[in-house]
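Key result, reporting period 2: structure in, sequence out.
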């Protein structure tokens, strides 16, 4: 490892230590408010230190090219980017042009943006889940408030799924990946969005009485993705699936929305594929409810 890499690694170790000390301070009842404030100051100082380094160099951490150091720092920076505004009222991008430019460079780097980048919705939705599991849950008023804020933000992002289909990458690659995930996992997906006792994200409603209809909707979504036609045209104006007798369109629409909201990037697929799949599912749900 060269000296620049070592220096950047050591700076990141300082940032990570300060970050975790700050993030988990809220859960440590032995700390005073002064202690928590001091940890916030220390964390912001380290974020500013990184921003100064990126402003002086960049756009990547060690210069003009992506290196292993970018891979090291992106998981925590990406998480903080989306979750700290919800949990700590702290925006790591605000007033930090070097970090903003670094994210822009990362998002233009296809191996990151097309495969391993997490998206705003996934980080926001999982923030509420983390708080429920590890933050103390609804029993603590401050945690309950953060959960409610995260859920509200996630719901707001989810309302844009259908509109985002217009600008989604509808090339063959994302469409095939999305369809393959639906086809190869359809039995588990149907079970998840219709079960009466969900294992996680229990606050998402399930279509418990529409198992066959859900299967039909998922098969239809896969057919839209694989049709070779314009995916926006097919989703918005193509024929709707014919549901089994006795199963309501409302329940099928609910299931489609639940699948879209349960989809996590990059756990389940890359961001471009998730964008087009969520868009198709949300568009179908809108049409099932209105037409």
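The corresponding designed sequence is given below.
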């Amino acid at each position: 490892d060269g000296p620049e890499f070592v220096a950047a690694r050591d700076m990141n170790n300082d940032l990570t230590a300060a970050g975790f000390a700050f993030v988990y301070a809220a859960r440590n009842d032995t700390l005073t408010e002064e202690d928590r404030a001091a940890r916030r100051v220390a964390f912001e100082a380290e974020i500013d230190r990184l921003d100064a380094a990126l402003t002086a160099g960049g756009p990547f951490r060690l210069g003009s090219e992506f290196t292993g150091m970018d891979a090291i720092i992106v998981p925590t920076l990406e998480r903080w980017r989306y979750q700290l505004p919800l949990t700590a009222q702290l925006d790591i991008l605000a007033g930090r042009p070097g970090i903003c430019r670094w994210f822009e460079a990362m998002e233009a780097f296809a191996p990151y943006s097309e495969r391993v980048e997490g998206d705003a919705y996934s980080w926001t939705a999982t923030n509420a889940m983390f708080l429920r599991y590890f933050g103390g849950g609804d029993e603590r008023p401050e945690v309950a408030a953060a959960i409610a804020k995260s859920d509200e933000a996630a719901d707001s992002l989810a309302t844009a799924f259908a509109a985002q289909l217009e600008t989604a990458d509808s090339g063959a690659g994302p469409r095939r990946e999305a369809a393959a995930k639906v086809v190869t996992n359809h039995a588990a997906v149907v079970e998840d969005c219709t079960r009466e006792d969900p294992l996680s994200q229990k606050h998402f409603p399930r279509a418990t009485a529409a198992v066959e209809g859900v299967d039909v909707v998922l098969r239809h979504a896969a057919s839209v993705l694989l049709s070779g036609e314009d995916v926006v045209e097919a989703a918005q104006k193509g024929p709707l699936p014919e549901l089994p007798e006795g199963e309501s369109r409302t329940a099928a629409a609910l299931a489609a929305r639940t699948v879209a909201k349960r989809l996590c990037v990059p756990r389940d697929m890359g961001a471009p594929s998730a964008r087009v799949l969520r868009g198709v599912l949300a568009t179908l749900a809108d049409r099932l409810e209105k037409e």
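The chain has 14 helices and no strands. The longest helix spans residues 33-56. This case is discussed further under Risks and Mitigation.
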